[in-house]
Write a structure and sequence with these properties.
It contains ten helices and six strands; from the N terminus they run αααβαβαβααβααβαβ. Helix content is about 40%, strand content about 10%. Helix 4 links the parallel strand 1 and strand 2. The chain binds thiamine diphosphate and magnesium ion. Magnesium ion binds next to helix 6.
């Protein structure tokens, strides 16, 4: 297959468009270091429908806060923010645990719109205590946790580079049960039911947690230069 996709953000945007049939805000560009396998494209692109479900579930004027997790890396390249100043992430400093507390701040600042935070299972452990704050002040914030069993991005990069990963698998709580222990409703979802469950959680007033057990894949890195 003579497909040629550059190893950069255009790849994510193109994959998103191919899988979802919806235009992503970035478009395919050609260049060196291209990914030439359609199979590789399709495998990585399995993350695109998940991102599309999040977009459809989130009202266009609602703020979203993205922690350091694979779905967020897709979002950086392919999420249509729709309204100015609604998409926030830890890109740059890259501190794990930023997403959920930051979303609480937005929910305090403007209680009229539901707020979304997106974390991985690893990053979620950095800010679980804030569930108490969300409950205590009845904040209108929904926390989507993508649970892939550990530090997924590190697992993927190590496996790609060395053929195996080390210290990436995590002992972690049942995040639905954890949320409920704080009095925050929690639901376990699937890629197929994500849009419905997330939409419901965002519509219900007060805090909620949606847990998506899924192993998402990263698209190729952008910063390594030509091979
Ligand atoms: C405070 C802090 N500690 C460590 C890191 C390094 N780090 C970046 S991403 C990552 C893995 C995060 O795992 P998870 O939240 O489960 O997301 P996933 O990669 O599995 O999607 C780690 C440990 C960091 N960015 N910030
Ligand atoms: Mg993870």
């Amino acid at each position: 297959m003579g497909l040629r996709v550059e190893n950069n953000a255009g790849f994510a945007a193109d994959a998103y468009g191919r899988i979802t049939g919806e235009a992503a805000p970035l478009f395919l560009s050609t260049g060196p270091g291209a990914l030439t396998s359609l199979a590789a494209l399709q495998e990585a692109a399995a993350s695109a429908p998940v991102l599309a479900s999040v977009r459809r579930a989130l009202p266009a004027d609602s703020p979203s806060f993205w922690d350091m997790t694979i779905l967020a890396y897709w979002a950086w390249s392919a999420f249509d923010a729709k309204s100015p100043n609604t998409m926030h992430s830890a890109q740059g400093a890259g501190g794990l645990g930023y997403g959920f507390p930051a979303a609480l701040g937005a929910a305090v600042a403007d209680p009229t719109r539901p707020v979304l935070a997106v974390s991985g299972d690893g990053g979620a452990l950095y800010s679980v205590a804030v569930l108490a704050t969300a409950r205590q002040y009845d904040l209108n914030v929904t926390w989507l946790i993508v649970d892939d069993g550990g530090y997924g991005i590190l697992r993927e990069y190590m496996t790609d580079a060395f053929g195996q990963a080390t210290a990436t698998e995590l002992t972690r709580p049942d995040y639905v049960a954890l949320a409920e222990s704080f009095g925050v409703p929690g639901v376990r979802t699937t890629p197929e039911t994500l849009e419905r469950d997330l939409s419901r959680a965002l519509t219900e007033p007060g805090p909620s947690v949606v847990v998506l057990p899924a192993v998402l894949r990263m698209f190729a890195p952008t910063h390594l230069g030509d091979a």
